[in-house]
Amino acid sequence: MVITDGQGCTAQSADVYVDCVTGIHDVDTEELVNLNLYPNPNKGTFKVTANLTSSQPVQIRIFTTLGQLVYNRQVAPLSNKIEEEISVNNLAIGFYILQIEAANKSYSTKMIIE
């Protein structure tokens, strides 16, 4: 692409290639099995469920796409499961990253608030 400014100067832009990220997949599910977030998209209230291989406390965090932490809560699993209803109605419409940390391993998925 050639760009020309108001004084007639021109510049040529470099080629830019963008890969679209459509999700983040669990690579290692040794400690966390069947992470679910629903509904997704949501209006700020949703449920997180997961089966665990241990009963250690789990950290649930939500980050903006810029990496700002906007939600942080520790949850104690019951019978190696978590079923947590989360309400973040104060967050703006947009994309977020939900992160679950269990046994020093982190699992993430995207979340949309509309």
Walkthrough of the structure:
This protein is mainly β and 114 residues long. The chain has one domain (24-113): Sandwich (Immunoglobulin-like). Helices cover 0% and strands 53% of the residues. It is built from no helices and nine strands. A four-stranded antiparallel beta sheet has the order 6-5-8-9, with no helix packed on it. Strand 3 and strand 4 (45-52) form a beta hairpin. The two termini are 35 Å apart. The relative contact order is 0.24. The model is unreliable at 24-29 (pLDDT under 50).
Write the layout of secondary structure elements.
Blueprint: E1 2-4, E2 10-12, E3 32-38, E4 45-52, E5 58-64, E6 69-75, E7 81-87, E8 94-102, E9 105-113
Antiparallel strand pairs: 1-2, 3-4, 4-7, 5-6, 5-8, 8-9
In short:
This protein has 114 residues and is mostly beta strands.
Give short descriptive properties of this protein:
114 residues; mainly beta; Immunoglobulin-like; four-stranded antiparallel beta sheet; three-stranded antiparallel beta sheet
Report the structural category.
mainly beta
Q: Might you state the CATH topology name?
A: Immunoglobulin-like
Ends: how far apart?
35 Å
Instruction: Identify the quaternary structure here.
Output: single chain
Number of distinct beta strands = 9
CATH architecture: Sandwich
Q: Looking at the structure, what is the overall shape?
A: elongated
Question: Radius of gyration, Cα only, in angstroms?
Answer: 20 Å
Give the strand order, joined by hyphens, for the main sheet: 6-5-8-9
Portion in beta strands: over 45%
Structure annotation, total helices: 0
Residue windows where pLDDT falls under 50 for at least 5 positions = 24-29
- Tally of discrete structural domains: 1
Following the backbone from N to C, one meets helices and strands in this order, namely EEEEEEEEE
Question: What is the residue-averaged pLDDT?
Answer: 82
Can you identify the CATH class? Mainly Beta
